């Protein structure tokens, strides 16, 4: 099989390296297996050397059974049109924080800090330039969209400056930790506040279930606004690929 398969069929052997191997007389995978790994490294690259060693039966790359835990989760967007009003930025930041919180719950992790940033477009030289970010610590790690959005909006209010045409904004969740481990503390607030927080996981589960069944955005926080696709900060999607398999309106129609 090795003798009957061209060297270009090896994963990672591109057109350029394949042509060089052909010129060197290495036409099949069997010819590649017979090469000296040190010579391959010196003449081509360490990547091809590892490939040769793997073909010779020496493992060089181990399997990643469990990916490294995430250090941050981000949701950032460039606006379809410049945004100047704080109310519009509040809607955008709420949307971004909500999506990032949804990612937290899917991965069963909590966030301990919320970073929010806004900036103008560096490509619009005629506009005044401004870029700021801030980190808001949470009282305790959480995946609750309400707490995370509240922190994000507090951060936005502290860095927002009127008179600028903002082009990009985003939310990053930091200090991530496993949701299965929690540092408990004394309950110093009243019973009503404690009950509201205790009901958070059930509420978030219901929120995700509704949006999963009826499409994202079916149920959202009030500060995200109700304008939907008419929001001024929405992305431009005139060139978006139609959803042939997920949207009835985009399904292709074949006529005889």
Q: What this model shows, in words?
A:
The model has no long low-confidence stretch (mean pLDDT 86). The protein has helices spanning 15-23, 29-33, 37-43, 46-55, 86-106, 145-159, 191-198, 200-214, and strands spanning 73-83, 109-120, 131-142, 166-174, 177-178. The longest helix has 21 residues, at 86-106. The protein is an alpha+beta fold and 256 residues long. The chain is elongated. The two termini are 47 Å apart. The relative contact order is 0.14. Helix content is 35%, strand content 18%. Strands 1, 2, 3, 4 and 5 form a five-stranded antiparallel sheet that branches.
Helix content: 25-40%
CATH level 1 name of the domain at 73-182 and 222-230:
Alpha Beta
The helix-and-strand class reads alpha+beta
| Number of H/I helices | 8
- Percent of sequence in beta strands: 15-25%
Give the N-to-C terminal Cα separation. 47 Å
| Full CATH superfamily name of the domain at 73-182 and 222-230 | DNA polymerase, Y-family, little finger domain
Please name the CATH architecture of the domain at 73-182 and 222-230: 2-Layer Sandwich
Based on CA atoms alone, the radius of gyration comes out at 26 Å
| Biggest sheet descriptor | 5 strands, antiparallel
- Average pLDDT value? 86
Poorly predicted residue ranges: none
Query: How many E-type strands?
Result: 5
Shape by Cα distribution:
elongated
Secondary-structure element string: HHHHEHEEHEEHH
Examine the coordinates and then state which fold CATH places here, giving the name of the CATH topology of the domain at 73-182 and 222-230: Dna Ligase, domain 1
């Amino acid at each position: 099989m090795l003798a009957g398969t061209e060297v270009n069929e090896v994963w990672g052997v591109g057109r350029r390296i394949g042509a060089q191997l052909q010129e060197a007389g290495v036409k099949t995978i069997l010819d590649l297996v017979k090469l000296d790994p040190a010579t391959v490294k010196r003449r081509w690259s360490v990547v091809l050397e590892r490939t040769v060693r793997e073909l010779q039966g020496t493992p060089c790359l181990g399997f990643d059974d469990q990916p490294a835990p995430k250090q941050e989760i981000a949701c950032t967007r460039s606006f379809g049109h410049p945004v100047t009003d704080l109310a519009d930025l509040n809607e955008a930041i709420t949307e971004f924080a909500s999506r990032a919180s949804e990612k937290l719950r899917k991965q069963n992790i909590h966030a301990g800090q919320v970073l929010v940033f806004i900036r103008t477009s560096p490509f619009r030289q005629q506009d005044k330039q401004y870029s700021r970010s801030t980190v808001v610590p949470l009282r305790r790690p959480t995946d609750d969209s309400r707490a995370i959005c509240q922190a994000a909006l507090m951060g936005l209010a502290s860095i927002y400056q009127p008179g600028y045409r903002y082009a990009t904004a985003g939310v990053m969740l930091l200090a991530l930790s496993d949701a299965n481990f929690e540092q408990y503390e004394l309950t110093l607030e009243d019973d009503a506040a404690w009950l509201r927080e205790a009901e958070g996981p059930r509420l978030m589960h219901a929120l995700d279930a509704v949006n999963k069944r009826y499409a994202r955005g079916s149920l959202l926080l009030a500060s995200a606004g109700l304008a939907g696709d008419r929001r001024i900060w929405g992305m431009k999607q005139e060139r978006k690929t139609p959803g042939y398999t997920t949207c009835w309106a985009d399904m292709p129609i074949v006529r005889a």
